[in-house]
Specification:
By secondary structure, the protein is of the alpha/beta class. It has 9 helices and 8 strands. Helix 6 links the parallel strand 4 and strand 5. Helix 5 packs parallel to helix 9.
């Protein structure tokens, strides 16, 4: 941890709350909003894994759309084209977790460059970050579009190393998705797992180097580390 020269964040579920779409789901399907959001997200993740294993890449918007269609079919909910577009657009306007904006500013002003490495397409990453007004906090927005495969494939994690021109040991990878944190740790990054829900870590032969309950806790930890070194 003493060698960290940059921070790379996952986007979905780490900086931005994927279940902020539940409110719009509730508007469209009263009484079913949280249920739809939970299944939609799970299928979205599954489809990225399956697409990678099948060597049949599609962009994140397509995977998100397909996951919504499946969810509504499974739950026996009618999905009109206008509703499908409305709900998928919510994934381009996700809300950041409450502590994120101030914590990012604190880390950026400390001198560490910040980047995002996401399964999102270039378009989706840009729209999510810009709609929340946080674009200025990041030196790089890195998309799997560049390698046409999804996390946790090693070639995705290599993108951050290549973009930042730093050795992997110098990059702290931050994710709330335990499978993503395990993938990054397997690749060789020091990893911070953001465990907001007090869950257990995945059994994939890897362990995070640091566990925090929010991005603000990470910011305080890094500040304490820099202070101790000065």
């Amino acid at each position: 941890m003493n060698e960290i020269k940059a921070l790379v964040f996952d986007l979905y579920g780490t900086l931005y709350d994927v279940h902020s779409v539940a409110a719009r789901c509730e508007t469209c399907y009263p009484g079913r909003g949280r249920e739809i959001s939970a299944m939609w997200r799970q299928k979205q993740i599954e489809y990225t894994w399956l697409r990678s294993l099948m060597n049949d890449y599609c962009d994140f918007e397509k995977a998100t759309e397909d996951a919504l269609v499946y969810t509504c079919r499974y739950l026996k909910l009618e999905l009109e084209a206008s509703t499908q577009q409305l709900l998928c657009n919510e994934y381009l306007q996700l809300a950041p977790f409450p502590e994120v904006p101030a914590a990012l500013r604190r880390m950026r002003t400390s001198g560490l460059p910040l980047a995002i490495l996401s399964n999102g397409s270039r378009r989706s990453i840009h729209e999510v970050v810009s709609s929340s007004g946080l674009e200025a906090e990041f030196a790089h927005l890195i998309s799997v579009d560049d390698v046409r495969v999804f996390k946790p494939h090693p070639s995705v994690y290599q993108l951050a190393e290549r973009t930042l021109r730093l050795a992997r040991a110098q990059i702290l990878f931050v994710s709330s998705n335990a499978w993503d944190a395990a993938g990054a740790r397997h690749y060789g990054y020091p990893v911070c797992w953001v465990n907001r829900a007090s869950n257990c870590f995945e059994e994939l032969g890897q362990q995070p180097d640091l566990v925090v309950d929010g991005i603000d806790t990470l910011a305080r930890h890094l500040n304490d580390l820099q202070t101790s070194q000065s």
